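User: Can you recover a sequence for this backbone? Please restate the input before giving your answer.

Assistant: Of course. Working from this structure:
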């Protein structure tokens, strides 16, 4: 992939006891969807070239005969260092984190760590992470009964116990993460398993085999718990597979199609967020006369990245007032005072309208917007209409920014 096409990083982290590469590879095959399919699905609209760099991250979490004492916070600190190394480069890109099982708990702990850090590099990292894709992440714990005998009271048994259902550590993390999400415009997709998983059992020769009783290792409730009660078919989606198999897709796999339909737009939005920041810098930074500016084609490319399918959906759906229904507001002292001060550039204040749901605020605002475009001479009138029932871009500041920047150009 040419460096000029690199617009987003997709970083995958494996689960408990998983191999960084093997966890996402089809069984008994060389096919690995992160390497063989996903890059060809996240492409530039103009030339069809890949724009995503796919990275995998592994860590030590073997269960039998382990001498490792590290817990979730230790693993998160190491993962944070790796991510910081990516943002501390001139070519840093927005990130989408894809996590399976324990990997998702490490991701959550990493986000909590950087949210409490005052350093510039952690702030940059926090801003760079634009979305999460979780597969079977035991946010309220998982069934580890069959795993504890394998650890055999070794140093790593504390890690396994910490992710058990009812774990106090996970409950604390869950509460903190809910509060964290209230301060962040972060889109999350949670996939949950729907098939029972085989569990390990020790045979008469002392060898561990996967012939034990089948169980749901991570329940639906546990897997989608980060959504704060919001269970939608878009953001919480079943994968008809076992806990381990839910990230092992085959070529032309319908389950991969379901994941792709959510992951690809998320990556595109992350790239668009980067374009918004670059466009904002172009508008607010005064360049020296001899400093190189972006070419017209480069600027147009950035502008196109600001577009999304539903950008004008809400304003188009707002009805036009009947007759002179809204005409009265133009005659009010409050509106005239605000309008006149605006035309004379005497203030940059807001004129605020509030009312009960369904009272007609959107109809009123559309009327004022159209009237302002026609009557406020010499001023650029920009707008963005939020849609509470729409997509993430329609109801958050992630859509507001490209909306107002596009209409201001």
């Amino acid at each position: 992939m040419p460096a000029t096409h690199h617009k987003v990083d997709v970083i995958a982290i494996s689960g408990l006891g998983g191999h960084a590469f093997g966890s996402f590879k089809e069984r008994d095959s060389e096919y690995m969807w992160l390497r063989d399919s996903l890059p060809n699905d996240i492409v530039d609209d103009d030339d069809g070239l890949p724009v995503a760099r796919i990275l995998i991250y592994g860590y030590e979490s073997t269960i039998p005969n382990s001498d490792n004492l590290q817990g979730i916070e230790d693993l998160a600190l190491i993962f944070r260092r790796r991510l910081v190394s990516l943002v501390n480069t001139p070519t840093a890109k927005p990130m989408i984190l894809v996590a399976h099982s324990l990997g998702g708990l490490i991701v959550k702990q990493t986000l909590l760590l950087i949210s409490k850090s005052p350093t510039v590099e952690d702030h940059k990292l926090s801003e760079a992470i634009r979305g999460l894709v979780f597969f079977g992440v035991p946010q309220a714990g998982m069934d580890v009964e069959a795993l504890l005998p394998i650890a055999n009271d070794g140093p790593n048994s504390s890690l396994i116990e910490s992710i058990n259902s009812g774990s106090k550590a996970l409950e604390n993390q869950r509460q903190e993460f809910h509060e964290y999400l209230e301060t962040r415009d972060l889109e999350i997709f949670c996939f949950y398993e729907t098939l029972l998983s085989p569990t390990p059992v020790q045979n008469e020769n002392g060898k561990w085999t996967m012939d034990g009783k089948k169980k749901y290792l991570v329940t639906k409730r546990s897997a989608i718990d980060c959504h704060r009660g919001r269970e939608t078919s878009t953001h919480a989606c079943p994968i008809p597979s076992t806990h381990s198999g839910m990230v092992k897709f085959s070529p032309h796999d319908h389950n991969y199609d379901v994941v792709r339909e959510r992951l690809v737009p998320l990556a595109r939005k992350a790239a668009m967020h980067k374009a918004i920041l670059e466009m904002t810098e172009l508008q607010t930074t005064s360049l020296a006369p001899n400093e190189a500016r972006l070419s017209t084609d480069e600027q147009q490319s950035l502008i196109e990245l600001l577009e999304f399918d539903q950008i004008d959906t809400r304003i188009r759906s707002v009805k036009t007032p009947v007759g002179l229904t809204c005409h009265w507001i133009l005659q009010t002292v409050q509106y005239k005072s605000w309008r006149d001060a605006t035309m004379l550039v005497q203030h940059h204040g807001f004129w605020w309208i509030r009312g009960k749901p369904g009272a007609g605020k959107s109809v009123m605002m559309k009327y004022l917007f159209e009237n302002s475009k026609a009557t406020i001479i010499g001023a650029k009138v920009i707008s963005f209409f939020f849609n509470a029932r729409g997509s993430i871009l329609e109801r958050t500041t992630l859509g507001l920014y490209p909306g107002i920047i596009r209409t201001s150009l």
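That completes the design. Residues 310-408 form one domain.
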